[in-house]
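INFO batch 0412 | record 1 of 1 | parsing
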Amino acid sequence: MSPAALEKAVGLLPKTDDPSLLWGIETSDDAGVYQLSDEIAVVNSVDYFTPIVDDPRMFGEIAAANALSDIYAMGAVPKTALNIVYWNKNLPIEILAEILLGGARQLERAGCALVGGHSVEAPELMYGLAVTGSVHPKRFKRNRGARAGDILILTKPLGVGVLTTAAKFNMISEAELQLAIDSMRQLNDAAGFVLQECEGRAATDVTGYGLAGHGYEMAAASEVALEFDAERLPVLPLALALIRKGVKTRAPKTNAAYVGKNLKTARGVSKAARQLFLEAETSGGLLIAFPPDRAAAALEALHERGCVYAAEVGRAVEAPAGGVSLLA
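INFO prediction complete | emitting tokens
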């Protein structure tokens, strides 16, 4: 659903005054954090969606990686997970088995135990996970905390939404789509490790609201502005070319409405780059704000750990608070 509509509905919820709730829904963050002891806090999140690729096992892997990403974005380690299935009974049950195997494979890679799940019959197939992680109560990360002067690093490329949409219209080959699949399947565990190791100040994963929308939430929560360099954004091959050919989703319109007047695009930025900035991503990378003296080491560590597309994409500046700019 559109971020603006969701924000309106969530805004009606009562505030929780439980002192053990360290972080809730206040800044549209990736997960909630609840303290159990002086040493342990649990991190909870849930995510599921409809298939975006034809291969059921690949879909299961993508959906699981996407759900796990919220935990990594909080600087936590995933521990347990529950499957969530909306199942169309007219489909062969072998498809569901393949989806669940894909999810289980990713959980095994993450060292996260599958402890159960829930399923309901529905007209449309959906799959995802509710994930619980753990972190020290004083070490969890938020989308709040970026400071003026911080360097912004994005750990995965943009463009998966564009490529998967193009695939639906047979505009790209299976080999070309595989680039997007590989990106979506990649866990954000390395990014979560570097987030902690190099003392990132704020983080969020880039998914449905696009880099612009999630960047806006980080900027607003941190009371700074974020500037992104269009030429430095990591992009999957063909993504910009496909946009120029007319490939687009509904996301740029709804995400632009969500960010509103806080979004500024400099002269010289192409229409394709602006659209990509607003396009939804599935199982995207982490956007992390690092102190300037930590950014170079963080980028090197990300590359060493397999985040080959990781790049410095911009910076945090003082004003206007909540502003998100795309610069040429």
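INFO post-check: The two ends are 31 Å apart (CA to CA).
INFO record closed
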